[in-house]
Amino acid sequence: MKNINFNLYRYQILPKDRYFQGSLFGEIKTVEDLIAQKNNLFYSSIKTITNWKGKKSSLKGQLEYDKDNFLLFRFAPKRTTKIENENFEEEQLENWPSILVGIWNHPEKQIIVIQDRKKAFSDTKAVLKILVESINNALESKQLKLYGEPIFHKEAFWSIVEQYDRKIKNIKFELVTPNMANISGVLSDDLKNLAKGTNTAKTLLEIDADDDSTLHIDKQNKQVGDLVEYASEGGGNISLKAKGVKKRIQTANAVKSVEIGEIEISGDNAERIAEILKRALE
Q1: Nearest CA among 15, 16, 20, 19 for reference residue 38
Q2: Mind listing the pLDDT tens digit for each residue in 247-263?
Q3: Calculated CA dihedral for residues 197, 198, 204, 209, nearest 10 degrees
Q4: H-type helices in 140-269, by residue range?
């Protein structure tokens, strides 16, 4: 039986300005009210989107299922394929290879799961980018912004460290300011308070070795381990620069996935597909 991969991403919904002056809207009078209602505002905004469009490409989208904080969409990009007709002439035909996308909008989940289908997109990160841009357009009037990051295997970071032992020159931690207690508990209060107290959306923490030396990264180092733990749960990205390697090494390339049997999600029973995805994400 053929299996289908779904890649996992985490989204966080942050106020654009924690020090916003003036009234907001409706019953939401303060930033605290805004944060408390962020998932409801996300939900109502996503339901208004009719044009899923990024800077370079767009998607046709259809909501298949909406129940208990879980939304299941079917998306498709426009593709063209060449065929040869009976007159030995080439023709171009439209093709719309579809993918399934689940969005779990529970405040302690906030997961986007994207079907990995190469006929549609070579990389599911391209789909995430379109979703984030479209949703942020819908959230514009709500004083909120969505950030999406891969959920990756933290072991991938330590494998890179081991592979390039005594060769790592620089590490960058790019962390989204946390608003999910269940994944941010590993971060120090000082770091969280600094980000929130300074109206920071993302914190860039960079460590750099001397020109004549390399970084010493030990798995027993709690500070590094906590940053890796938070980032791996979808809290941000980590990139490393190693001697002899031209490009930075990205942990985002080790995105987590779940496998589901093709026969289990075939057909048009959206509720059954949604329940299978939710069970796989538990």
Answers
A1: 15
A2: 999 998 889 999 988 76
A3: -90
A4: 154-163, 181-184, 189-197, 222-230
